[in-house]
Amino acid sequence: MSTPTNVSSGLSSGSIASGTVVAERPTDAAATDVPTLRLTDLRTTFSSRGLKVAAVRGVDLDLRPGEITVLLGESGSGKSVTAKSVMRLYGGYASITGKAELEGRDLLTMSRSEILAVRGADVALVPQDPTAALDPLRRIGAQMIEVLRLHKAVPNKAAAKARALELLDIVGIPDPPRVFRSFPHELSGGMRQRAVIAIAVSCDPKVLIADEPTTALDVTVQAQILDLFLSLVKRLQSAVLLVTHDVGVAREVGDRVGVMYAGRIVEYGPAAEVLDNPRHPYTRALLDSMPTPEVARGDLRSITGQPPVSGQLPPGCAFHPRCPSCFAPCPDVDPELVDAGPGRLAACHLLTAADVPVTLAHSAPGGDR
Amino acid sequence: MTLTQTATATDPGVIPEAPLLVANDLVKTFGNGVRAVDGVSLQVHRGETVGLVGESGCGKSTTAKMILRLLAPDSGTIRIDDVDLTNLRGKAMRRLRARLQLVPQNPQTSFNPRLSIRSSIDFNLRAHHVARAERGPRVLEALERVGMPAAYAERFPHELSGGQLQRAAIARALVTKPDLIVCDEAVSALDKSIQAQVLNLLFGLQRDLGVAYLFISHDLSVVEHLSDRVVVMYLGRVVEEATSKELWEDPRHPYAEALLSAAPNSGRARIVLSGDPPSPVDPPSGCAFRTRCPVALERCAEARPPLVISEGRHLVACVNQERVSEPVPV
Amino acid sequence: MTVLHPTLDEPDDAVDVHPSAPSAEPVPKVTRKRKRKVSRRRLGWPARIAGGVCALFFLAAIFAPLITPYGPLDGDRSQRLLPFFSGDHLLGTDGQGRDVFTRIVFGARISLMTGLVPVLVAGLIGTTLGLVAGLGGRRTNTGVMRTLDVFYAFPAVLLAIAIAAALGSGASNAIIALSVILIPPIARLAESEVARIRSADFMEAARVSGASFWSIAVRHVLPNAAPAIVVYCTALVGLSIVYAAGLGFLGLGVAPPQAEWGLMVNDLRQFTFSAPAISLVPAVVILIVSVAFNVFGDGLRDLLDVRSETH
Fold first, then answer.
1. Which is nearest to B62 in space by CA: B94, B26, B95, B92?
2. d(CA A106, CA A121)
3. Minimal CA–CA distance to C163: which of C250, C82, C221?
4. What is the pLDDT along chain B (330 residues), one digit of tens a residue?
5. Is C149 helix (H, G, I), strand (E, B) or coil?
6. Which class for A352: exposed (0-12), middle (13-18), buried (19 or more C-beta within 10 A)?
7. For C253-302, how does the pLDDT look when each residue is reduced to its tens digit (9 = 90+)?
8. C202 touching B, CB under 8 A?
9. Is the C-alpha dihedral spanning B126, B130, B131, B134 positive or negative?
């Protein structure tokens, strides 16, 4: 960096490659235990033509600083809706109840001006499609300066420019001054996503919400962006909510993972444990349906049937019609999240039923022909 | 249609019969100077699945479109059995299309929104002058094969989910009893659990009908699962070709190694490549991968490495035999 | 950041299709379901009123002799320029004592015909040209579209006047002139619609099927292009009526003393100061009808879009 800055921030100058972890926020044990963002019984309901569709049906989640929490699920599971509900991006389209407390302030009851001040500053979003997130008619630098000035993160325009260049360097862009002057279409997909991430972290967000941030990218570029994400979170000590459908991504970057199905978290815990030793039949089935070299061709264990439509959920446990371990109480009672090991929760009757051995049946192999 | 069940393609010890599809040295340059495909050759045998894998912009879809004759190649030839497709036109080409079908990527847009599923499938039979009395039963038979109840035939595309539509798309491809189906990212838009259903279905159909697939995807784990042989493309060229097992166990091209290591369940240390794929308008001199290659040598910039036999039927286009990482036994 | 409409995030309406239990899954009757969906989408109230106005004029034109006691040419010099509501003369009489209401009703026959027929003719020719240009090769496209651009180079009204003047006056010549000038805009719209559809994913599947050019055009392209063209043509009827009236006004349409709205405007022009209300009647009628066709066409747009639920 040629221009030294006097802007105080968690992201100070220095290349990411040096690997120095700069954490200026308090990181003592007591502090990290306090959730930055706490979701309590979050429910999002859409009304369309008089029909009420519950997309999110009671999500509890704590996001802690410096931790990546992954929401894993298939399309229609409510994972993206949860993320967007927190940022109140649905305007009048949805009714959102429950609480989303950012260090004690409930985002859901804030006034419009308050939420606008929070968005992009305290809570930032990295969207799926970097192309759609950037204004095609304005240079990257101008878009970065706008965000910095809007949230008054910098005292003047010169400082904003210096800070923007510094941010571009931090997200691993090789030639910051060139990218600063570029229009979005002049950059490759990976560079665009880096620029979007630079904008997202420009005001040192306490909470970073990433909605499928690597889905639109190629696998080799995806690997770079995930690396960048990991090092950024360490430096910034932001609490990250990462939404993805990709088990591989969840395993790679997640500290904790919440598996969503039909608008609820059905399993929650440390990512490695949940994904290596799942306690919920849905998580088990999702992992089983991944092709691996060991599975013979045509023998993939698919989940039978289709995911439920949020307007017409089956009674009881929403997964029971597709569940290979379904038994007596499942069609009638929707199970609560219960303790499933240290730091783990799962919503399945198998865990509470005394007379049923707690082993998860594999779904039928090749059950499709 | 002959229902040949060839195991020969996967068994290098047996001399394979004449291939069903031979594409030779295909080249396609678009008007804007993008050389999308630069000398790609591939073969598909009867009843075999050949995977074509690479990242966006590597030319895999353009190759598929040329094979389907949706795009005319600048040079190169395409043959199916003894028929040279390259310059086939009019009625002869249309008739041949019964043997060469497509399952497109996006199920939501690959059906005409104003036609019912039955009409869409029926259209393919009508194109080949199948008598009306025969068409009805054949549409239902195709739907049954892909596991769709007959009642769904009257539905419209917007009334079905992605997984159901992709089944219908397979039924549509199947109804004229093709020898080869090109699956262009056919499962990429589906959820993992539905994707597994469709992959199982595709394999079952091949086992029962002996249809061959050219399976195009960016997802290596899916390609590896379904394919007998895999062709890896980078920037318009084939960089490696091997049986699926060989490629998974012992990739020889540094790009293939990096691609494999990025697969979620490869069990390998992830190799993070620097930078983005270069622009196909102005590719690097010599080996197109050298700008991102962890083991690039000086001479990589001089000449394009030819695709040569590395061992058996394992073909690699790389001058450096040094591996990025150790082979992983599976 | 965009605010997504909720339906985008929801899975579509899907029923379990697992093949192992196809019989166990009662599939709802399809026909009933589709009817329900169609009936839910109705014309909005402005379009319904506009449609009613159009229908009223059509009915009046067809049953003209039944709704008025006078003939369009019956005039009584002693009864000239009577104001509105004088006896049987609902809209008064003109300079030759002819009943204005009667002449409007009979004039509707010619005016509506000169509005409708050119649009039908131009719609047919224009759509065909658009299909050929949109689906054919680059050279065909260039040939067709550049030829149409030549017609575009002249202002439409001037061109119509020139053609009508060259052919001589008379209703059929006016229709020919109007047909010619309406072809380019319709063909251009059809071509752009076809180009849009041509790049749709399902067209790739259609081409791979091995079907012939016309078979793909009729089965896949036309049904998807038709709504936009129909909507546009409906609105063009209004425009065509205005143009036809313009030609009539200039004496390039039917010959006097026949009843035609444009001719009536010209005829009553001389009484702008002596009987302003009556002189305005034909102009107001032309305005009402052309606006009605435009509003009706706009309402059709929403009605004909079957995909608005999924996209």
1. B26
2. 16
3. C250
4. 333 333 334 444 455 578 999 999 999 998 888 888 999 999 999 999 999 998 888 899 999 999 999 999 999 999 998 889 888 888 899 999 999 999 998 888 999 998 999 999 999 999 999 999 999 999 999 999 998 888 889 999 988 888 899 999 999 999 999 999 999 999 988 888 889 999 999 999 999 999 999 999 988 888 989 999 999 999 999 999 999 989 888 888 999 988 888 776 667 777 888 777 888 788 888 898 988 888 888 888 888 888 888 888 889 998 887 666 655 544
5. helix
6. middle
7. 888 888 899 999 998 988 989 888 999 999 999 999 999 999 998 888 87
8. yes
9. negative
By three-state DSSP, how is residue A339 classified? strand
Which of A190, A291, A303 is nearest residue B221 as measured by Cβ atoms? A291
CA separation for the pair C221, C228 (Å, rounded): 12
Residue contact C210–B128, C-beta within 8 A: yes
Using a 10 angstrom Cβ sphere, with 0-12 exposed, 13-18 middle and 19 or more buried, the burial of residue C85 is exposed
Instruction: Find out whether A141 and A206 touch, Cβ atoms under 8 Å.
Output: no
| Chain C contact present for A360, CB below 8 A | no
Is ipTM beyond 0.90? no
**Contact in structure between A242 and A213 (CB atoms under 8 Å):** yes
Residue C25 DSSP one-character state: S
Please indicate if any CB of chain A lies within 8 Å of the CB of C28: no
Other CB atoms within 10 A of residue C31 CB = 9
Residue of C nearest to B191 (CA): C11
d(CA C10, CA C14): 11
**Contact across the interface for C5 and A93, Cβ inside 8 Å:** yes
Among the partner residues C9, C12, C18, nearest to A55 by beta-carbon distance: C9
Please state, in angstroms and rounded to a whole number, the distance separating the CA atoms of residues B86 and B76: 8
As to burial, measured by CB atoms within 10 angstroms (0-12 exposed, 13-18 middle, 19+ buried), residue A256 is: buried
Chain C: residue whose CA lies nearest to A89: C3
Residues of B in contact with C213 (CB under 8 A): none
Neighboring chain C residues of A93 at a CB cutoff of 8 Å = 3, 5-6
Nearest CB to C30 within list B97, B155, B158: B155
* Min Cα–Cα distance to chain A from C21, Å: 10
Compute CA B167 distance to the chain's CA centroid, rounded to the nearest angstrom: 18
CB-nearest to C3 from A80, A93, A125 is A93
Please tell me the pTM assigned to this model. Answer: 0.80
Q: Do B200 and A246 lie within an 8 Å CB cutoff? A: no
H helices of B148-243, in order, are 162-174, 192-209, 220-226
| Substitution target from C20, C25, C202 for chain B, most B beta carbons within 10 A | C202
Selecting from A80, A91, A127 the residue whose C-beta is nearest the C-beta of C3 gives: A91
Are the CB atoms for B102 and C205 separated by under 8 Å?
yes
Q: If you ran DSSP here, which 8-state letter would residue C101 be given? A: H
Instruction: Give long-range contacts, CB 8 A cutoff, 24+ apart: C219-222.
Output: C219/B112, C219/B115, C219/B123, C220/B112, C220/B115, C220/B123, C221/C131, C221/C134, C221/C135, C221/C194, C221/C197, C222/C127, C222/C131
Q: What token pair was written down for A284?
A: 């088990």
Cross-sheet strand order for the sheet of B35-44: B35-44, B21-29, B75-80, B83-84
Contacts of A285 in chain B (CB under 8 A): 193
- Distance of residue C134 Cα from the nearest chain A Cα, in angstroms: 29
Residue C141 and residue C164: Cα distance in Å, rounded? 29
Q: At residue A367, what are phi and psi to the nearest 5 degrees? A: -70, 15
Whether chain A has a CB inside 8 Å of the CB on B58: the answer is: no
Neighbours of chain B (3+ CB pairs under 8 A): A, C
C170, C255 contact by CB (below 8 A): yes
Minimal Cα distance from C1: which residue of A?
A133
